[in-house]
């Protein structure tokens, strides 16, 4: 009977351990703002941030998802905006950016929002240099070098 209990207990422990390893990494929300290092201030693009970033994965390979409103307030006026692309300097995050935006985020437009997702971030506490393309009213287009500043 004792041997049976030990075997059952050992099997239970192994099953729990296997289940724990099989579960995917859980998502964690992280608040952020878009920082403009060129003028050392929060970018006006931060007004388009919709909620916290969703960060999944584990050390060495995090995936980040950010959501932006397809509108922005400029000089007190709300105007339609779009975000054609987001490029990410994932390997330069630890050094504050090396100017090489080696990852292009995937982009989904839906319900008045643009969602960007990128992977390969080694540390989810480091600020992330990005290159964000924007278009306002379809007549003013620019690409900005910004930083996802976790706060």
TrEMBL record:
Keywords: Signal. The keyword Signal applies. InterPro entries: NEAT_dom_sf. Residues 1-27 form the signal peptide. This is Uncharacterized protein.
